[in-house]
Amino acid sequence: MPHEIAIYGVLVPGLLPVFLVCLLLMVLLDMLVGRLGLYRQVWHPSLFRLALFVCLFGIAGLLLIH
Amino acid sequence: MSTVPATEPVPASSRWPWLGDFVAGEWRAWIFVGKSLLAIYLAAWLAMWLQLEQPSTTMITVSIVMHPHSGMVLAKSFYRAIGTLAGSLFGLALMSLFPQQRELFLLSLSVWVALCAGGATLYRNFMSYGFVLAGYTAAIVTLPAINNPLGVFDSAVMRVSEVLLGILVAAVVSDLVWPERLRLLLRQSAQAQFNLFIDFVRDSTAGNMPRERMEHANLALARAAVRLEDMRASVIFEDPEVHARSTRMRLLNQRYMAAATSFQSLHHLINRLQRSGSPTVADALISLYRPLAAALSPGLAQQHQSAVLAARLGEYVARLPAQVVALRAPLPAPLAQLEFDTGATLLQRFAAELRDFATLEGSLREAQVRGSVEKVHFLRGNDIPGALVGVLRTFLTMVALSAFWLASGWPFGASAMLLATIFSGLLAASPNPVSAATHTFYGYASGMLAAFVVVYGLLPGSNDFASLMGASAGFMLIGPYLSTRDTLPGVGAGYTLGFVYILALKNPMVYDPTHFLNDGIAQVAGLALAGAAFILLPSVIGSGWQRTRQFRRLREQAVLAATAPLEGLAWRFESLVRDLFQQVVTYTRPGSDESRSLLAWALAVQESGRTMIELRQQLASGGDIAPAARRAATTAMHAIARLYREPDAARWREADAAVHAAIIAAAGQPVRLHLYQLRSALRDDESPFARYIPSSSPESVHAA
C-alpha cells in the first residue's frame, strides 16, 4: 500500500482512508454491542471502546502496510 | 455491636449540611479544572510534536469544547467537526473565487458568517455549535491568508488539522478521565418522568380536577418532554447503548405526549359534564375510570415497575368493553348515551396509550434491544423570522468591520473580524446576549491581562514543555474553575478563550510586545463590536414580538391538525405543540395574564387538535361513512381551524353551527363521537373560548 495517496492532486497519508473505514466499522460494532448490552460487562466502557478502536486501526494499518 | 451508644457523634455532614454540598461541588469543579488543563496541555504538546503551525488554535478549540458533562463534549465535537469541514471547504472555495477582489471576498464571507449565525439561532441544541464553527472556520482559514492567496490551501489544511486535533483530544480526555455520565442523568429523568406521570394519573382518577391544576400539570409534562428530547439528542454521542435505544426513546416520548393529551381531554370532558348538568353521565364515566387507579397500584414496592404496570394495564384495557356495555345500559336519553360513548372511547384510547407507554418503558430497561419500532421524530418549532434578525445583525457587524478594515488598512483587522465572527455566533443563541457579552468581555479582558503577565513575566525563563506548563497553569486554571460557577455565566469561557488566544503559543515562542498589544486591542474591539450589535439590533429571543408570533403559531397548530397531510401528523402535532409552548412559556412571567392565556390556549389546542386528527384518521380509514357526513365533518373542522387562526365571536358561532350541523349529518355513525367532543371543547366555559360563548346558548343536542 502506498504511504501517500493523491486525491485531486492533494497528497494525503495512506492511513487516512484506513482510519475512516475503521471509524465506520467501529460505529457498526458499537451499534451491535449497544443493542446486545455487552458494554455493561466491562469496567470502563469508554476506555474499552477506545482500546477496541486502537486495536482495529492498528491491525488494519499493519496488515495493509506489510 | 448490638447497641448504639446514645452519645454517638453526629456525622459532619449532618452537623454542617452545607459543608458536604460544598465539598462535593468543589470536588466536581476541580475534577473539571484538572481535565480541562490536561486536555489543553496535551493538545498543545501534540500540536507541537506534530509540528503544526499554531498550537494555539488547537488550545482554543479545546477550551471552547470542554464542558463539565462529557456527553456534551462529544455532541459538541461531532457538530464541531462537521462545521469545521464545511467552513474550511467554503473558505477554500471563496479564496479560489475571489483571490484578488477583497471587497467581494469580504462581502461573501460576511454573508456566510451571517447565515451561520442565523443557523445557530435557529437550532437550540448542539447543532447550533456546528453553525457557529462553520462560520468561524471559514474566517480562521481565510483571514490570516488574505495577503497571500497562494498559501490559503496550506493554511486551511493546517487550521483543519489543528482544530480536529483539538476536538479529538477534548473528546478522549473528557470521555476517559473521571467521565461524568449524562446517561445516568438521562435515565433518572426518564424514570422521573414516568413516575410523575403514573402518580399523577393514579391520584386523579376521582375525575375532578380544577382547570388550573391541569394547566400546571400540562406545563410540567411539556417541559419534561422537551427536556428529555434535548438530553437524548446529546447523550446518543456519549453512549452506544443509548444510541441503540434512540428510536425507542423517541417513540416513548411520543407515546407519553399522546397519553398526556388523551388524559387531559378526558378530564376536560368529565369536568364539563359535571358542570353542565349531566352528573349521571360523569359518574358513570368516573366509575369506569376508577379501576385504573387500582390497576396502577400494585403495592408500594412495584409501584413504578413498568413491566408490572403494563401487565395490569393490559388487563384493565381488556375488561373495559364489558364494563362500558354494563354502564351504558341504564343511561336514559340518546344524548346521555352520546356523551357517555364519547367519554368511554376517550378513556379506552387513553388506557391503551398508557399501556403502550408502560410496555415501551419496560422494554427500554432491558439489557438487550429486541426488534425494531416505528420511527418518529420530535419536531422543533424553530423561529425563522427571529433567525433572520440574527442573520441581518451579524451581516451588518461583519460588513462594518470589513469596511473599516479596508478603509483604514488596519494590520490587525483580521483578528477583530475573527473575534466578531466567533462571538456573533455564540452570543446569538443566548437569551440575554447583552449581559452575556458584557460578562464575556470582562472575562476576556482579564484573561488577556493574565496572559500578559505569563508571557512577559513567567514564560521567558522556561526552556521546555514542563516549565511552560508550570508558568502558565496557575493562571490558566482560573478559567475552567470560573466556568463551573453558575452565577458567572460566560466569564469563565471568556477568560479561557482570551488567555489561550493571546498566549499564542508557538514553537519556538515569539516575544513581541507590540504585536501582543495590537492584537489584544483588535480582539477586544471585535468582541465589543459583536456585543454592541446586540444593543443596536436587539436579540429577538424571548422578546414580546417573538412571543406573540410563537403564540400565534401555537394556535395555528390547530389549523395544521385540521388541514395538513395525515401521514405522521399525530407525532408532528404533539411534539411541535409542546416545543412551541415550552419556548413561549420560558420567557413569560408566571402568573401574568399572558401566562394564563397561554396555558389555557395550549390545553385547548392540544385537545381540539388531537381530536381533529383522530377524526380525520377515522374519515380516511372507514369506508362506510356517508358522504354527507364526511363533507359536514370536513366543513366543521375548517370552521374550527378558522376560529383558532383568528378567534372572535363570529367565527366561534360559525364553528359551533358547523359542528352542530355535522353532528346531525353524522347521526348514528362513529365519527359523531369525535364531533361531539369537538363541540364540547368549543363550549367549555373555562377554556379561552368562554368569552365568545353567547350566554343563552342552548344546552342540549336535540338531534342526537
Give the SSE map.
The complex is a heterodimer of chains A (66) and B (704).
Chain A: E1 4-7, E2 10-13, H1 15-36, H2 45-65
Antiparallel strand pairs in A: 1-2
Helix pairs in contact in A: 1-2
Chain B: H1 12-15, H2 17-49, H3 55-65, H4 70-97, H5 102-122, H6 127-142, H7 152-176, H8 182-203, H9 211-235, H10 240-244, H11 246-275, H12 279-289, H13 291-295, H14 306-328, H15 334-365, H16 384-408, H17 413-428, H18 433-458, H19 465-476, H20 478-483, H21 491-503, H22 513-536, H23 544-563, H24 569-586, H25 593-621, H26 627-645, H27 649-665, H28 671-682
Helix pairs in contact in B: 2-3, 2-7, 3-7, 3-21, 4-6, 4-7, 5-6, 5-16, 5-17, 6-7, 6-17, 8-9, 9-11, 9-24, 11-12, 11-15, 11-24, 11-25, 12-15, 14-15, 15-28, 16-17, 16-22, 17-22, 18-19, 18-21, 18-22, 23-24, 23-25, 23-26, 24-25, 25-26, 25-28, 26-27, 27-28
Characterization of the model:
The complex is a heterodimer of chains A (66) and B (704). Chain A has two helices and two strands. Chain A has 66 residues and is of the alpha+beta class. In chain A, helix 1 packs antiparallel against helix 2. The radius of gyration of chain A is 15 Å and the shape is elongated. Chain A starts with a strand and ends with a helix. The mean pLDDT of chain A is 81. With 704 residues, chain B is an all-alpha fold. In chain B, helix 5 packs parallel to helix 17, helix 9 packs across helix 24 and helix 23 runs antiparallel to helix 24. Chain B is elongated.
Query: Which class of secondary structure composition applies to the elements of chain B?
Result: mainly alpha
- How would a crystallographer describe the biggest sheet of chain A? 2 strands, antiparallel
Per DSSP, what share of the residues of chain B sits in E-state strands of 2 or more residues?
A: under 5%
Task: Give the number of helices of chain B.
Answer: 28
Q: How many structural units, i.e. domains of chain B?
A: 3
pLDDT average of chain A, as an integer? Answer: 81
Task: Kindly provide the radius of gyration of chain B, computed on alpha-carbon positions and rounded to a whole number of angstroms.
Answer: 30 Å
Distance between the amino and carboxyl termini of chain B: 77 Å
One letter per element, helices H and strands E, the order of chain A comes to EEHH
Strand content of chain A: 5-15%
The number of domains of chain A is 1
Structural class of chain A: alpha+beta
Biggest beta sheet summary of chain B: none
Number of helices of chain A: 2
Q: What is the H/E string of chain B?
A: HHHHHHHHHHHHHHHHHHHHHHHHHHHH
Strand order of the largest sheet of chain A: 1-2
